[in-house]
Amino acid sequence: MVAPAGPEFFGAPATEEELARRRSQTLIGRVGEPEDVAAAVVFLAGPDAGYTTGEFLNVDGGALLGR
Q1: What is the block-wise mean pLDDT of the chain (67 residues), using blocks of 10 residues?
Q2: What is d(CA 57, CA 44) in angstroms, rounded to the nearest whole number?
Q3: Of the candidates 36, 15, 38, 35, which has an alpha carbon nearest to the alpha carbon of residue 26?
Q4: Collapsed DSSP state (helix, strand, coil) of residue 4
Q5: Which residues of 21-32 are buried (b: 16+ CB within 10 A; e: fewer)?
Q6: Nearest CA among 54, 53, 61, 52 for reference residue 9
Q7: pTM of the prediction?
Q8: Amino acid 58: pLDDT
Q9: Which residues contact 66 (CB under 8 A, 6 or more apart)?
Q10: For 52, how many CA atoms within 13 A lie in the half-sphere containing its CB?
Q11: How far apart are CA 20 and CA 36, in angstroms?
């Protein structure tokens, strides 16, 4: 399962202040984009992930670690 985090996954469009807050909570200093989630899905659907099973892949720019 891919667990995305980004402005488009939180309902209404975020304000600049909210985006700044979210950016500050990530290790890479930016909010997620749909392309970030798509890259994770492509990886999981490809042969390089053939031995990956039953995992949650957090696509969140390190937000859990950056708190």
Answers
A1: 64 82 88 88 94 89 72
A2: 9
A3: 36
A4: strand
A5: ebeebbeeeebb
A6: 61
A7: 0.72
A8: 85
A9: 24, 25, 26, 27
A10: 14
A11: 18
What residues have CB less than 8 Å from 15, skipping those under 6 apart? none
Provide the residue type at 21 as one letter. R
What's the token pair of residue 42? Answer: 């492509």
- Structure tokens of 8? 């488009």
Percent of the chain that is helix, strand, coil (3-state, to 5)? 45, 10, 45
Q: Which 3-state string (H, E, C) describes 10-64?
A: CCCCCCHHHHHHHHHCCCCCCCCCHHHHHHHHHHHHCHHHCCCCCCCEEECCCHH
